[in-house]
Amino acid sequence: MDAFDFNAPLVFSVSSLNNYLRELLETDEILQDLWVRGEISNFSQPRSGHLYFTLKDSEAQIRCVMWKNAALRLRFSPSDGMQVEAHGAMSVYPAQGQVQLYLDLMRPAGEGALYQEFLRLKARLDAEGLFDPAHKRPLPRLPRHIGVVSSATGAALQDILQTLTRRLPILRVSVAPSPVQGVEAPPGIIAALRQLNQLPDLDLIILARGGGSIEDLWAFNDENVARAVYNSRVPVISGVGHETDFTIVDFVADLRAPTPTAAAELATPITAQELSLSLQAALETLDARLDGRLNTARQGLALAQAELRRASPRAGVQNALQRLDEVHARLERLGRSQLEIRSLRLANAENRLDALNPLAVLRRGFAIITDQTSGSLISRAAQTHPAQGVYLRVQDGTIPAQVTTMPTGAEKDASNP
Amino acid sequence: MQATPDNQPSFETAFAQLQTIITQLDNTELPLEEALRLYEEGKRLSALCASILENAQLRVSALNEVNQTPPPTAEE
């Protein structure tokens, strides 16, 4: 086995040299995310759509590539002699051993000045407290009336109205149209904000504009517009440009939305669909509360009934009835013995009465005589006279009879009173 | 162009009333008759809310684009 020669020089292939160089460049943080300013020269844009050019200043130059995807997003047409600021990453094109800048963003150099101005204004207003979170007003969870400041003809307004219709169609929307770019935009926006602030029941304002170049959006970096937003009585949601665009208005607004559509969404945190669910829940609670109340009433009733039963005179009545029954039974027992005594006595009396009954004598052959007309008892001869009608009552009936002659002894008795 | 049929209460108003009724119904001291009356009212309000949601259409009005100078007031 051969010993490894530690002293032999390390020999790269060209490919591995280029690869090593590329690795070196691509692992350097600064070189992978840098802005460079320079003048375009040797500009070419072949059929592929990629851009190839050189950026140079008075003393140096570097090759640049911008792939088609990035080139399509450019908001200006680059050409030779133009001063630009470009963003990208350094790498190596191995086929030519060419170190070059792969660009993803590029803007005219003047925009850099605008950006500086933007930063200065931002710093000044920030120091003044215009971005103070304490000044940001809470937005209503369920707005009723929303104001929109936007271009009457822009897609932003259509996006906003569509979104609001979709999410919360019970809303009222007042649109205050205004130009949103050009010199007339700042005063227009300020006037529109003032107009909307006069609506007494307005809940919030959406200030929106669709995407555009930094110049297009410049009205939203206007100091007076920023102050108008800050001084708005009604809270303001900004929705300007695209996700990546930040304007001064975004910092001043009570809420910043990345796009007009997003602004409309943030303006309506609760949707009609959610309201419908809440309503459903409220209805269920309503039913449950009534059920609860009815149950309470039922329990109360049951308690009261039990209480009533305990306190009721019915128990007393039943006790009394029972006592009455007992008394009754005693009375009955008592009554029966009394009755027996009485009936014995009665039988006794009847026997005695029988013995005294004058009719009983009739059975032994006596008769009772009564006057036919007066019905009075005839017990003396003097009570009779001839032709007098009498009844003779015997034991089994009555015999009508007539006195035929003068009764004997009658005169004697009559003259001897 | 105010297109607001304000003869009927808004969803928010009706829903707030419904919530109030629900709170009131939680009071067990409430006489039963009153509870039933509140319940009926709650049913009415919830039906109203549902119909508002169902028939809702975004009411959009456009303010006139104003000049940069404020409009003349009545005194002028």
Lay out the secondary structure.
The complex is a heterodimer of chains A (417) and B (76).
Chain A: H1 14-26, H2 29-32, E1 34-44, E2 51-56, E3 61-66, H3 68-72, E4 83-93, E5 98-108, H4 109-128, E6 145-150, H5 155-167, E7 172-177, H6 185-197, E8 204-209, H7 223-231, E9 236-240, H8 248-252, E10 255-257, H9 260-267, H10 272-311, H11 313-356, H12 358-362, E11 368-371, E12 389-394, E13 397-402, H13 410-414
Parallel strand pairs in A: 3-5, 6-7, 6-8, 8-9, 9-10
Antiparallel strand pairs in A: 1-2, 1-4, 2-3, 4-5, 11-12, 12-13
Helix pairs in contact in A: 5-9, 6-7
Chain B: H1 11-25, H2 32-55, E1 59-62
Task: Sum this structure up briefly.
Chain A is of the alpha/beta class. Chain A has helices at 14-26, 29-32, 68-72, 109-128, 155-167, 185-197, 223-231, 248-252, 260-267, 272-311, 313-356, 358-362, 410-414, and strands at 34-44, 51-56, 61-66, 83-93, 98-108, 145-150, 172-177, 204-209, 236-240, 255-257, 368-371, 389-394, 397-402. In chain A, strands 1-2-3-5-4 form a five-stranded mixed β-barrel. Chain A has a five-stranded parallel β-sheet with strand order 7-6-8-9-10. In chain A, strands 11-12-13 form a three-stranded antiparallel β-sheet, with no helix packed on it.
Molecular structure report:
The complex is a heterodimer of chains A (417) and B (76). Chain A is of the alpha/beta class. Chain A has helices at residues 14-26, 29-32, 68-72, 109-128, 155-167, 185-197, 223-231, 248-252, 260-267, 272-311, 313-356, 358-362, 410-414, and strands at residues 34-44, 51-56, 61-66, 83-93, 98-108, 145-150, 172-177, 204-209, 236-240, 255-257, 368-371, 389-394, 397-402. In chain A, a hairpin with a 4-residue loop joins strand 4 (83-93) and strand 5. Chain A is rod-shaped, with a radius of gyration of 66 Å. Chain B is mainly α. Chain B is elongated. The A-B interface holds A 142, 144, 152, 161, 164-165, 169-178, 184, 187-188, 191-192, 194-196, 272, 275-276, 278-279, 282-283, 285-286, 289-290, 292-294, 296-297 and B 4, 10-12, 15, 18-19, 21-22, 25-26, 28, 30, 32, 35-36, 39, 42-43, 46, 49-50, 52-53, 56-63, 65-68, 70.
